[in-house]
Amino acid sequence: MQAEVVVKGWRNGLLLILPPEGTWDEVIEQVHAKLDEAKARSFWRGSQATIDCGARPATVPELESLLDRLKRAFGLVPVAVVAEDEGTRAAGEKLALVAYNELPIVRKAPPRGERRSSSTPAEDGDGTAETVAAAVGNPANNALYVPNTVRSGQRIVHDGHLIVVGDVNAGAEVLAEGDVVVFGSLRGVAHAGYTGDESARIVAGNLRPPQLRIAGKIARAPEEEGIRPSPARNPEVARIENGEIQVFPL
């Protein structure tokens, strides 16, 4: 019996696992049908999507056709591709996706002062010891690159630094365990250091959000103005100083 596409929720939105057999057109139609079953147009709209190709190779045009279907038909935000094939990973990177050779396993960082070294084994839920990379617990080594604007109604959550090349529109939310960096205008809600890291920062080319959050601190805009009502469009950084969120020129 031919394997089918698997669609399931995971820590970063939706995970699409592609079968090794079948034509690419058949795979796309399977993905479409599975997303329809999962009510992706309503429940999952605006979510991030990771595509796991496994051992299946894919070219730039093939991946592009799948990404186009995910964006146009379901409003998903493709962010990553997982592939054993080096050419498939290269194709994903050309389309501005983060490329992995295997699905990343993420564990929550241990409390401060109890970080494991890269040689310290961690126990999985089934008791199996596995080496923990030095990147675990260090958001600087786990950045997510979003190559487009985050639209109203979309919500992006990441367990490292989050970099948005476009804008974050009003009505959108971006949350990161580390820093939030927005190349364009930040008019939605941003939450940096959402697991409690008060050293996290929010950086934007045009900082005009209704609300900023860093760790457990909140700064709200007065009335309907942004956090920074000045009309100047200069890059700024928000960080915690003296126990409060403050904004400074970058």
* Radius of gyration, taken over Cα atoms and rounded to an integer in Å: 20 Å
Q: Give the N-terminus to C-terminus distance in angstroms.
A: 58 Å
Count of helices? Answer: 3
The secondary structure category is: alpha/beta
CATH architecture of the largest domain: 3 Solenoid
CATH topology of the largest domain: Pectate Lyase C-like
Return residue spans where pLDDT drops below 50 for at least 5 consecutive residues: 106-140, 223-231
CATH class categorisation of the largest domain = Mainly Beta
* Portion in beta strands: 25-35%
Biggest sheet details: 6 strands, mixed
Number of domains: 2
How many β-strand runs? 18
What strand line-up does the widest sheet have?
8-10-12-14-17-18
Mean pLDDT: 78
Shape: elongated
Topology order in helix (H) and strand (E) letters = EEHEHEHEEEEEEEEEEEEEE
- Helix % is 10-25%
Question: Care to describe what's here?
Answer:
This protein is α/β, with parallel strands linked by helices and 250 residues long. It is built from 3 helices and 18 strands. Mean pLDDT is 78; it is low at 106-140 and 223-231. It is elongated and about 60 Å long. Helix 1 (24-37) runs parallel beside helix 2 (60-74). The termini are far apart. Strands 8-10-12-14-17-18 form a 6-stranded mixed beta sheet, with no helix packed on it. A 5-stranded mixed beta sheet has the order 1-2-3-4-5.
